[in-house]
From TrEMBL:
SUPFAM superfamilies: Chelatase. Signal peptide: none annotated. Pfam families: CbiX. GO terms for molecular function: lyase activity; metal ion binding. It comes from the Bacteria. This is Sirohydrochlorin chelatase.
Length: 246
């Protein structure tokens, strides 16, 4: 019996860099599991849609696991993903479709943040740091923002530096405000980490505001790192087990 197909479901963006990053991440997942059928889909603003991808997979697979490529349990995770999966299931009653938990904010993602930050500091020729800002998308859901704040505290304890969470939308503080707050404390070597999966409007806006406020370096989003790919497969494994008859 063939293993369930895997669909990596991203939010989607009009920015072509975003789709390119998701494509690269899916390629990384395929490298780790060449035995699996792995495709990508987008909730909005990019193609293919989830329904289009499942329509294609359903011709040869009767079990599909959908892994949402989302970092926080915000609106997209709680509403958009379940709605899209339910609609796809209704259109394909002969196929078992399971959505897994989101990627989330795994502590091991700090290794990826560190790598991206080292790259940014090298590019900016910045040799000193006395504060860090962890920039995320932001949400009207306070629990989603709190998860970012928890990761910021963990990152700060790891580096023995003050770290504050900042958001590109829906919640304060903005990245520029966070940088200015540190500067008011007398700190001058402040770098900003991009807690986004892929480039796009929100990461660009967060970076722009941070640079205007005096940040010395802005890291790139997490991107197609092997650690992210391994987490995709870990989520897939949970979904695949749930499809096993008991």
């Amino acid at each position: 019996m063939a293993a369930p197909a895997l669909v990596a479901l991203a939010h989607g963006s009009r920015d072509p860099r975003s789709a390119a990053t998701i494509n690269a991440l899916v390629a990384e997942v395929r490298t780790l599991r060449p035995d699996l059928k792995i495709e990508r889909a987008f909730l909005d603003l990019a193609k293919p849609s989830l329904d289009t991808t499942i329509e294609r997979l359903a011709r040869k697979h009767d079990e599909i696991v959908v892994v949402p490529l989302l970092l926080t349990e915000a609106y997209h995770a709680k509403v958009d993903v379940p709605s899209a999966v339910a609609a796809a299931q209704a259109r394909h009653p002969g196929v078992q479709i399971r959505a897994t938990p989101i990627l989330g904010l795994e502590p091991r993602f700090l290794e990826v943040l560190d790598l991206r930050m080292r790259e940014a500091l090298k590019a900016a020729r910045a040799r000193e740091l006395d504060a860090l800002v962890l920039a995320a998308a932001g949400s009207s859901d306070p629990l989603a923002n709190q998860s970012v704040a928890r990761l910021a505290r963990l990152w700060g304890s790891h580096h023995k530096l003050p770290v504050t969470a900042a958001f590109a939308s829906s919640a304060p503080p903005a990245t520029g405000e966070a940088v200015r707050a540190f500067r008011k404390e007398g700190r001058r070597h402040i770098a900003v980490a991009s807690l986004f999966l892929a480039p796009g409007f929100l990461p660009d806006r967060a970076a722009e505001l941070a640079l205007e406020a005096g940040a010395v370096a802005i890291s790139e989003p997490l991107g197609a790192h092997p650690e992210i790919a391994r987490t995709v497969l870990a989520r897939y494994a949970v979904g695949a087990v749930e499809l096993v008859p008991v």
